[in-house]
Amino acid sequence: MKSRENLVRLKQFQVNEKRRQLLQLDMMIAEFERMAVELELQITAEEKKAGITDINHFAYPTFAKAARLRRDNLRNSQSDLAQQRSVAESLIGEAEAELSKAEMLESRDTKIRDAETGGRSAMIG
User: Fold this and answer.
1) What whole-number distance in Å separates Cα of residue 86 and Cα of residue 54?
2) pTM score, two decimals?
3) DSSP codes joined into one string, 23-64
4) Per-residue pLDDT of the chain in tens (125 residues, 90 and over written 9)
5) Among 15, 85, 95, 119, which is disulfide-ready with 25 (CB 3.0 to 4.6 Å)?
């Protein structure tokens, strides 16, 4: 039953691939968080330097406006990635369940083969 062994290997590969994707999403979320915090610090420094914190003020620093927009975009992207992460977690669960089923089938097939081989060798001997 080589096909079962191949099936188990395929399912293991799929589980590992989904775990890798989840890890990549976690790293991207963390990187976006780091970048957003840096932008927040730059915004605060720029506002402090200009002495203006009101976004609607005519003299509000252009750099601070642009940094706010970028920070907000990063937060939105983070939110999207968090949703993708939730989906990826559920897909990992499904892939692990399929792997478990494939491993059980292979184990059952191995036991059947061993029993058949043991019975044949007893008849031969």
Assistant:
1) 37
2) 0.77
3) HHHHHHHHHHHHHHHHHHHHHHHHHHHHT---TTSTTS-HHH
4) 467 788 889 999 999 999 999 999 999 999 999 999 999 999 999 999 999 999 999 999 999 999 999 999 999 999 999 999 999 999 999 999 999 998 898 888 888 877 877 655 545 54
5) 85
Q: What is the dihedral of CA 49, 50, 54, 60, to 10 degrees?
A: -130
Burial class (CB in 10 A: 0-12, 13-18, 19+), 58: exposed
39 Cβ neighbours under 8 A, 6+ residues apart: 67, 68, 70, 71, 74
Single-letter code of the amino acid located at 102: A
Region label for 82, one of left (φ > 0), alpha (ψ between -120 and 50) or beta (otherwise): alpha
Cβ(8)–Cβ(103) under 8 Å?
yes
